[in-house]
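Thread title: Can someone regenerate the structure for this chain?

I was given the following input by a collaborator and told the matching structure tokens would be attached. They weren't. Posting the sequence so someone can regenerate them.
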Amino acid sequence: MNDDRAHYPPVNPVRAGLAARCPRCGEGRLFSGFLAVDARCGACGLDYSFADSGDGPAAFVILLVGFVVVGLALYVEVSHQPPLWLHFLIWVPLAIGLSLVAMRLAKGLLITLQYANKAAEGRLDRPK
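Best answer:
Regenerated them for you:
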């Protein structure tokens, strides 16, 4: 997965992940759709079959967006006491929008960090 670093200049995994670019060359697209990972890089041909971010992005997004939205909703409730329908009108679209944007960023970031750190599925060492 990561044995060809001599052929490509080093790529900053954070920058490539947030820009949804290939973790090896930094040029090709990482996603074929909004959250669907492409089969391979269009620029360097890296096979993205190693890319399995699992539930990691969702967990980070839930914690981050939940903290922001609930904090803002509590602040607005304590300081202005708007009606319940206004809370619903403000916070539900905000939570959905922030979650969609943050999910793509988090998924791209975790996939590029997975490549940069040569992360693989865990294995147990067995005595010989």
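The radius of gyration is 19 Å.
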